[in-house]
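S1.2 Input.
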Amino acid sequence: MRLNLKALALSCGILWALCLFLVTLISLVTGYADALLEVVASIYPGYSVSALGLILGLIYGFVDGAIAALIFGWVYNLFVGRQA
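S1.3 Output.
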């Protein structure tokens, strides 16, 4: 069974964007996961734990999650297509 790349990319992009948004929001309120978000900030230019970081996290998360899912799905479909 082959994967639908569009559906996979959209669902993973939305999921990763929401994860970054929620963790950033929780960190703004409680200070939780500051070390994790420092790593995220080192990967995504301009991202920080702030109101702007919430928006940038959504954008970066969606794009990054969608691209990663597309690559994963493409490789998966490549191997599934080679089976007899």
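S1.4 Remarks. The chain has a mean pLDDT of 94.
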